[in-house]
Amino acid sequence: MDNKGITRNYLQKLCSTLAKNQDTPWVTLLNSQARQSAADRAWQSINRFYQNCRAKISGKKGFPKFKKYSRSVEYKLTGYKLSDNRRKIKFTDGFKAGEFDLWCSQRTIIYYSEQQIRRVRVVRRADGYYCQFLIDVERQENHKPTGQVTGIDLGLKEFYTDSQGNTVDNPRYLRKSEKRLKKAQRRLSKRFRKGPKQSNNYHKQRVKVAKLHLKVSRQRKDKAIKDALALVQSNDLVVYEALKIRNLVKNHKLAKSISDASWYQFTEWLNYFAKIYRIVCVAVPPHFTTQDCSVCSTRVQKSLSTRTHQCPNCKTVLDRDHNAAINILKKRFSAVLGVSPMSD
């Protein structure tokens, strides 16, 4: 880290040095390209840290941490072999892990040639091992034009409110699972014993806690994918706020609720689906979208507890999130076209 001359190639050469070292014989067993993939990920972490430092990002910069154990191994083009029917995968490196069945929809693999499969990653989760395939293919989906445009305001009471006044519920998956999580974590804490080795019961309980966290994570992802896809399929233009989540979670009273909402994951999927369905998806600055009146642009100061927008100038009364969603949509049109979508 202190040596500014370190590059990705230098880290990959270190992998070769470790493979020749008699003190680390297990490195030789791993496929050479898999070793290089580990070096690539280490370099990405180091490079991201330096980029954050140069950008002078407030707070933690993401200093790389040493990880004694890895939960994944990534193969590039060698070290594995797929069966002809794509139902089995065999690992051929020095670890001799053997042949494993692939339990998945065959359409996800069988329609792609071996040349299109660029990487294979084996990942360990709390409930088992998973095989991820990186496939070189340009995905494009047909989008039927709807003539609809919408702006969305992300929130905590409702997951989002659009400029037509429609709302999507915030499921609060972590909050709903907190009772079971607390009970499981208390049991885990009671089974902890001082010493280098823990009991089998401790490790069984540790897996139970990990599975509960994994379930919450999967629920959030599933929700984000379904909501983003529905929004993209029903609109030709989607506008949302470019929220700085890093700054928002500094409010410790709301940090857990903001993290539970998974706004960032939702916007990432929104941009992904917008790209493959070839619609326009734009992020606009969030400044004063809640405070300004969506009809006459009068600035009306509100606290977080004020849930209704009441304009003293034009007497407009709207839900604060609905008012914000209209302002978000107007920001996109005023910046690009110089007109408002609500004007005649």
TrEMBL record:
Keyword Transcription listed: no
UniProt GO molecular function: DNA binding
Residue intervals of the Probable transposase IS891/IS1136/IS1341 domain: 132-251
Chain ranges of the Cas12f1-like TNB domain: 263-328
A biological-process GO annotation: transposition
Keyword entries, A-Z: DNA recombination, DNA-binding, Transposition
Entry-linked InterPro entries: Cas12f1-like_TNB, RNA-guided_DNA_endo/Transpos, Transposase
Keyword set includes DNA-binding: yes
Family: In the C-terminal section; belongs to the transposase 35 family. In the N-terminal section; belongs to the transposase 2 family.
Protein name, as recorded: Transposase, IS605 OrfB
Organism whose genome encodes this protein: Crocosphaera watsonii WH 8501
